[in-house]
Write a structure and sequence with these properties.
Belongs to the peptidase S8 family. InterPro entries: Peptidase_S8/S53_dom, Peptidase_S8/S53_dom_sf, Peptidase_S8_His-AS, Peptidase_S8_Ser-AS, Peptidase_S8_subtilisin-like, Peptidase_S8_subtilisin-rel. The strands form two sheets. The chain has a seven-stranded parallel β-sheet, sandwiched between helices. Strands 1-10-9 form a three-stranded antiparallel β-sheet. Helix 8 packs parallel to helix 9 and helix 10 crosses helix 11. Helices cover about 35% and strands about 10% of the residues. It is of the alpha/beta class.
């Protein structure tokens, strides 16, 4: 995320002069009739701030406003808090709370070290009101309401970050959020188990959750949680030429849609206007479009709101279908609101409940085991009493009965057989020697 404050006021003044034009002659030198004719033909003056919001025209937002501006919807911004200094935001914020332990109960006091304006920038892109007809910064859904939920990203917060997010998610759902915007990343693929319940709670209550993919410039080479949680709509970033941003975006298979992330405007907590970049700004643009879709199609559930956004996206990238840099393409607000899109029965970005069932097995209930009926075994007979102890060198009655006597008998029998065989052999040999030969033996 990069911000630029230098010379904005002077630039806007200069832009006003250029847009309105410098008169070469005085009105006194021009006939009255000609002056009246020129006033009729003169185009209305273009507000320089509004003119800098290029995404309004280039991404179909102004055309979508012909149908709706987000009436009847609520966007919860879970961030550093939306400040009270910008008049464009005061009428937009209808509620809030603090979850950092260091903010104010209404969530309107920015928290954090060095990035406390972040929540105000995000809120202004989503639902800024402008300062009048065609003047001042306006958000994508200027008639949607905002909830300001302040969380702390630094060490100053007294509540662990994981707990802050989980509690803020539940609060947002319970207080009527239709869309939840999360413009942060943890730079890790996995997430705490407490987020399983918090995000599942949002999905079960039909809330669209929009998450920033992250930025290479701040060290995010690949998307991390919460952008990796199944069911969220993860937003990548593109530059003014509608190409994937080298610094203000990242890559990953969980990216679902892309939106502008460079040369963005934002209102600080004190009302100052800044130029900044990052998918933290691309996400609220998509959150605003989600609010437009929900307003135009109040009968659609969250899954179909997300489906309309990705199915009506303008093609981008080299791959057919889902691209790791662009997701399904570049968001088109007018098409998302007005195009004919078939209804789906499942969230195209995934099913968190199914993921939990498959990958959180440690928390699953144990598999029931069949009950085994015990088998009774009759008791063994009592052992015979030991014989009277004798000398270890003398044989016992049992050893004589079962060992020595049978061994002696077997040995004697074997000896007698061997002696008998030997004697018989000698008699046969003697008989052969005493018999005369039956024929002569040649010498």
């Amino acid at each position: 995320m990069t911000t630029l404050r230098v010379g904005i006021a002077a630039a806007l003044v200069g832009a006003t002069v250029l847009l309105s034009g410098a008169a070469a002659v005085t009105p006194d030198d021009v006939p009255l009739a000609q002056q009246q004719e020129e006033q009729v033909e003169q185009e209305p003056e273009i507000d320089p701030i509004r003119n800098m919001e290029y995404w309004l025209d280039e991404y179909g937002v102004t055309d979508a406003w012909k149908v709706t501006q987000g009436e009847g919807t609520t966007i919860a911004v879970i961030d550093t808090g939306i400040g009270k200094g910008a008049e464009e935001l005061n009428d937009a914020v209808v509620g809030g709370a603090d979850f950092s332990g260091i903010g104010t109960p209404d969530g309107r006091t920015p928290v954090g070290d060095g990035d406390s304006n972040h929540g105000s920038w995000v809120g202004s892109l989503a639902a800024g009101r402008g300062t009048g007809a065609g003047k001042g910064m306006v958000g994508v859904a200027p008639k949607a309401d905002l909830l300001s939920l302040s969380i702390g990203f630094g060490e100053s917060a007294t509540v662990p970050f994981i707990d802050q997010v989980a509690e803020a998610m539940v609060w947002a759902v319970d207080h009527g959020a239709d869309v939840i915007n999360l413009s942060f990343t943890t730079n890790t693929l996995d997430w705490d188990r407490s987020w399983d319940d918090a995000f599942l709670y949002a999905f079960e209550h039909d809330v669209v959750v929009v998450v920033a993919a992250g930025n290479r410039e701040t060290g995010t080479e690949e998307v991390g949680a919460p952008a990796t949680i199944p069911g969220v709509l993860t937003v990548g970033g593109v530059d003014r030429e509608r190409k994937a941003s080298n610094t203000a975006s990242t890559q990953g298979i969980s990216i679902g849609i892309s939106a502008p992330s460079e040369e963005l405007l934002g209102l600080s907590a004190n009302g100052d206007l800044v130029i900044w970049e990052g998918t933290s700004g691309a996400a609220p643009l998509v959150s605003g479009i989600a609010a437009l879709v929900r307003s135009a199609h109040p009968d659609l559930d969250a899954a179909n709101v997300i489906n309309r956004i990705i199915k009506t996206a303008d093609p981008a990238g080299d791959r057919e279908g889902r691209d790791p840099l662009y997701g399904y393409g570049l968001v088109n607000a007018a098409a998302a609101v007005a195009a004919s899109v078939p209804v789906v029965s499942e969230n195209p970005m995934g099913d968190l409940a199914e993921w939990i069932r498959l990958y959180r097995r440690a928390d699953a209930e144990p598999t029931p085991r069949p009950t085994v009926t015990p088998v009774e075994i009759p008791p063994l007979p009592e052992a015979e009493p030991p014989t009277q102890a004798g000398s270890a060198l003398l044989p016992s009655a049992d050893s004589l009965r079962y060992g020595t006597v049978p061994l002696v008998a077997l040995s004697l029998g074997t000896i007698l057989v061997v002696l008998g065989v030997t004697a018989a052999a000698r008699r046969i040999k003697s008989a052969r020697l005493s018999r005369s030969p039956s024929r002569p033996i040649k010498e």
